Fold:
Amino acid sequence: MDCIPPVLSLVFFSFICQGHLTGYQSNEVNLLDSKASQELGWISSPSHGWEEISGVDENYTPIRTFQVCNVMEYSQNNWLRTNWIPRNSAQKIYVELKFTLRDCNSIPLVLGTCKETFNLYYMEADEDQGDMFWEHQFTKIDTIAADESFTQMDLGDRILKLNTEVREVGPTTQKGFYLAFQDVGACVALVSVRVFFKKCPFTVRNLATFPDTVPTDSQALVEVRGSCVNNSKEEDPPRMYCSTEGEWLVPIGKCLCNTGYEVQGVSCQACRAGFYKSSPGNLRCSKCPPHSHTQQQGSDHCSCEKDYFRSAEDPASMACTRPPSAPRNVISVINETSVILDWSWPVDMGGRKDVTFTVVCKRCLPGQRQCEACRGAVRFLPRRTGLRNTTVTVADLLAHTNYTFEIEAVNGVSSLVPTHRQFAAVTITTNQAAPSSVAVIRKDRTSQNSIALSWLEPERPNGIILDYEVKFYEKQEQETSYTILRAKGTNVTLNGLKPDTTYLLQIRARTAAGYGASSPKFEFETSPDSFSISRESSQVVLIAISSAVAVILSVAVAYLLLGRFCSYSKSKHPDEKRLHFGNGHLRLPGIKTYVDPHTYEDPSQAIHEFARELDASCIAIDKVVGAGEFGEVCSGRLKQPSKKETSVAIKTLKAGYTEAQRRDFLSEASIMGQFDHPNIIRLEGVVTRSKPVMIVTEYMENGSLDSFLRKHDGQFTMIQLVGMLRGIAAGMKYLSDMGYVHRDLAARNILVNSNLVCKVSDFGLSRVLEDDPEAAYTTRGGKIPIRWTAPEAIGYRKFTSASDVWSYGIVLWEVMSYGERPYWEMSNQDVIKAVDEGYRLPPPMACPAALYQLMLDCWQKDRNNRPKFEQIVSILDKLIRNPSSLKIIANTPSSPHSPENLLLGWSTSDIATFHSMGDWLDSTRTLPCKDTFSGIGYSSCSTLPKTSAEDVKQVGVTIIGPQKNIVSSLTELETHTKNDPVPV
Ligand code: AMP
Structure:
């Protein structure tokens, strides 16, 4: 018996308990902890059973433990009962036991009574029962066995194995309970007993606090409502669930820090001075924006500094601002009774972007110091207030009247400082006004062919009426053809009218200030025929009319043949009494040729023959769009009488010009005026009788083609590009048909309108080239745009339509390369030399083979071998009709942007003419061969035999059989291509 260690010396615990007896989870609330008490006072029965002994834990803190080891005796029934344990609010109670247990097999000489388990019991009681102890009243919770038992050897090795077992007690209903441990013959030491329940501990989530919460005994979660932390408020009611394991689950809803408070950790703290927070939320406080401040903590906004303001719409984050300073540099341009006011932006916008302008109009009576607000129908265009631009037009002012205009700059905070008006003023005197419209027209007499009318002078003539313009036309012709008469007085007789026909008529008065507004349309009818023409007589009349027409036509043809084309003949002189306008010119095909204005002795005669003189008052200039040799190029509007307003480009001749410059300047109009084609820039007219001298042409919104392409690099479809090229070719065909040689065809001299229509421009004589920055002086004198010009034109000034075709080839290259500079940065001398030696520009990136072929054709050395513009147009038409033909891409050298590569393999020197090589290859049905060859710039069949096998290989002709056969003769090539299984 003595050899059995009756007592498990607690010194061992310092070994085994390390790390095991330490704390428990924070969500566990102890009802009993044996380690915490030095006087447990538990009842042991019988008294020689469980024995209470003292020891120390791993921290050398004294603890009380119980042990029993009566394994050598029979019938053991040793009970140990705890004190009464109050349940508090706990519903679910846990018991944690820590114990060591001796392995029975390791105990020598045991008599078979040794056990390796003990039993755990409990008994409920509403109050402490004192020392009374009734075993039979206890309910068994479980038999506790050791996971780990120890042997004598373990003891020798000083290893004790501590077991921890946790069991649930209950369900309990009474206020407290006892636990009891029954030993039936084991060797066991009860190191600690802890009784606890679990709770969800106090916590703060989403700025809401959740109190300690004890879960229910059932499996259900307990829903707990949180309360917002100080200085925050609920955005969504905060809630969480407490699980039976004492864990918080599923946080829902949240609180947000109030305005002026920001989140710091789990609380809301006031913003510091100089900071603010204007909305609830979990953002940080922001620094006060410029020109604002706050001294207090917890501010929801910052106050503006003195003289700074915030409008009701301004967010708190915006800087405080102030009204703008006054507009500057007001200028006025008076046009009769209207005035254009223009000014500069204020120096100080007050820190805002919403500056607008308001115009106050004051009428100042002569002799009176005070001005009064403008009354009546003064019109402000676009409007009087809220102007976003620095200009306004004021119309319908009284003639010969003084006005003062105050232009006030206003922004979003101006209304907060009503006393602060910042304006600039300008005083003007209006000029003469155009007359008001003729309101009343009276029909005095009508007959079959005439009508006599009279009318009243306009209510406000605003000056001396010089004459009246009477415009009339047949109603059914709808103004496509009309007649204009001028009348000195207030009556007119219209003669030569058709019987029984309805006419529409409008009258307007003219003074030195110009035309007044037209009268409303006035409708009248001539009388019906009083006699009818018999069939025969009508035939006679018809024959007579036909003969007369024939005679007139013959005269017209003769006139045109002799007198060349005259677009606005002398009969259209504005001073003439009767003018007739029809749409379309009388043109006979094939006889119109270009007339060199220099052949006129008097150049001003040429200009008036080919260009219409415009009244400067019909032209409004909007802005400068470019610069020409002679002056600025502006965009503007042309409003001719009885025509729709059109956008125009206006070239001006700058002041201080010589007579020769004026002549050169206008020669462009004399040339342009002779052309009438959709792909040639259209001349609207010239202003030569007043200054500045102007040339007015149609307006081309997209400007010159080279810069337009550079701006839209790679953005057009192939069909769009070919469409543009087709337009240029059509314009050039027209010019060459007219016998006009352009000499400076280049993308920079093509203009593009908003519909991508390309039109040829820049006409002139020697001056065009003088004007062109690309033109360089040649050794033979004269300026030539080398890169665009055919060798014979550079060499001996042989400018022809064929040299224009060469230039067209260069334009084709410019278009396909989106405005790349031909021959890049090579010098002019190198370009001349390289071209002369037979080298040609390589195909631009992704250039269809067919277009590159066209380029090479245009660059034939012998100008007779170049295609005519007519052929170019038809080639391009075919390509447009058959877009798949554009899919075959010419081979591009690896890096075309170097002069070295430029010279790689593109030689066509010695290539004799074979313009229809493509056709020939087509005819032999060798499409792949043709495509491949288009890459080397084939032009001549006769060159092929001279081409080395290596050359052919280089361009990838490997599919057509033995290369040497290809190069040996055309006949062989034909045979091979026919026999090879080449897709066609
Ligand atoms: P030019 O003196 O004809 O070379 O014109 C100079 C520049 O003015 C051109 O490069 C264009 O940008 C512009 N320009 C000339 N004519 C027109 C036009 N009809 N429409 C629009 N811009 C034009």
Q: What stands out?
A: Residues 1-23, 531-591, 894-984 have pLDDT under 50 and may be disordered. Residues 625-626, 628, 633, 649, 681, 697, 699-700, 703-704, 751, 761-762 surround adenosine monophosphate (CB under 6 Å). The chain is about 20% helix and 30% strand.
